[in-house]
Amino acid sequence: MKHLTVFLVGLFLVVALVALAADAPKTLVFESKLGNVTYDHAKHNERVKNDCKVCHDKLFPQSRAPINFKAGMHKPAEAAKTSCAACHHPGGEAFESKANCNKCHVKAKAGA
Ligand code: HEC
Ligand code: HEC
Ligand code: HEC
User: Fold this and answer.
1) How many domains, the chain?
2) Is the residue at 20 inside a domain?
3) Residue 112 in domain
4) How many whole angstroms from 111 Cα to the centroid of ligand 2?
5) 3-43 confidence digits (pLDDT tens)
6) CATH code of 85's domain
7) Atom 15 (ligand 2): residue with closest C-alpha?
8) Which residues lie below 8 Å from residue 72, measured CB to CB, with a gap of 6+?
9) b/e map of 77-110 (b: 16 or more CB within 10 Å)?
10) What is the pTM of this model?
11) pLDDT-derived band of residue 96, with 50, 70 and 90 as boundaries?
């Protein structure tokens, strides 16, 4: 009986986690004239071992609210280590904006 309870509680946790992960978008697109930024939510998640708390709600709301990383915000965000620049800043764990525009901003190919 005790084993069954442990098994059921475990099963419930697995189902709850899968349901939660299923809620998470795979990619999110931020539109920009410089070339849209496709944010790979799934890949970023994997890198932090699915610890949602690394970003939600400390850095971003769990919704599509403004992320405060608009034009002219890259440098101030890097200085304050907020939004995407919490990690993407000089000397950070991910590439900074300087000289890396096209790692995030990808122009659609002509005709596409
Ligand atoms: C490395 C940062 C990061 C991590 C970790 C992360 N997210 Fe997100 N998430 C984002 C960003 C950025 C957005 C977009 C926010 C915005 O547009 O305002 C977002 C948006 C979302 C949205 C809203 C999508 C929509 O279209 O409305 C959901 C739901 C979500 N995340 C769930 C999760 C869950 C569940 C986890 C953990 C399994 C997680 N996120 C982990 C960065 C992250
Ligand atoms: C929790 C830290 C963290 C946050 C927050 C974060 N990133 Fe990243 N990002 C990384 C890491 C780590 C890499 C891989 C290392 C590298 O390429 O420098 C990466 C890589 C990328 C890449 C290359 C493709 C890929 O996923 O491998 C893009 C594009 C990118 N990030 C965009 C963004 C955008 C846009 C935001 C904000 C909406 C953001 N990141 C927020 C840590 C982060
Ligand atoms: C880490 C990813 C990342 C890098 C690197 C990056 N950007 Fe961005 N940029 C974004 C995101 C995400 C947005 C959209 C923000 C939003 O919707 O609030 C954006 C928005 C912008 C905007 C506003 C676009 C518009 O059409 O309203 C400009 C301008 C811009 N970036 C310029 C640059 C320049 C110039 C560089 C290189 C020096 C650069 N960015 C590097 C992620 C990045």
Assistant:
1) 1
2) no
3) no
4) 28
5) 888 888 877 777 766 666 668 899 999 999 999 999 999 99
6) 3.90.10.10
7) 94
8) none
9) bbeeebbbbbbbbeeeeeebbeeeeeebbeeeee
10) 0.90
11) very high
